[in-house]
Design goal:
The protein is of the alpha+beta class. The chain contains 3 helices and 5 strands, in the order αβββααββ. The structure holds guanosine-5'-monophosphate and zinc ion.
Length: about 120
């Protein structure tokens, strides 16, 4: 069935193939593609095919889908790196969220330090 979409959503367009992206893995539920402005040797975004605005809304609406996002993230980190990775879900503008279709940043391929905010 067609995924749940939102109008004018960049990541819905990437899921649909209407905006190009370098897709590195996908499943029936989620798509993984390279961040256009990578901040680490491994920097991939994993999005559910269905539109949910942020991770809190996804967790409330469809927790099994959140687990599928995490599973695809782990697969990418294992395929492309050591299998050790950092997952970041920026949630809300003040936390740095700029695209309001939930996405996990999968970061790895380097020794990641502690965050000093
Ligand atoms: P946020 O700031 O919402 O946590 O993360 C959005 C991420 O999407 C940023 O890291 C940004 O570099 C990435 N991004 C923005 N536009 C595009 C795009 O058109 N294609 C890809 N592949 N990544 C994008
Ligand atoms: Zn969307």
């Amino acid at each position: 069935s067609a995924p749940l979409t939102a109008p004018d959503c960049l990541f819905c367009r990437i899921v649909a193939g209407a905006v190009p992206a370098t897709v590195v893995a996908q499943s029936s539920a989620a798509v993984a593609f390279r961040d256009i402005d990578p901040q680490a040797p491994l920097h991939v975004l994993v999005v559910p095919r269905d539109h949910h605005a942020d991770v809190a809304q996804l967790a409330a609406a469809d927790p099994a889908l959140l687990a599928q996002v995490v599973s695809l993230a782990e697969q990418v980190a294992s395929d492309e790196s050591s299998g050790q990775f950092r997952l970041v879900f920026n949630t809300g503008p003040s936390a740095g969220q700029s695209v309001f279709h939930v996405h996990a940043h999968v970061l790895g391929g380097v020794e990641l330090g502690r965050i000093n905010a």
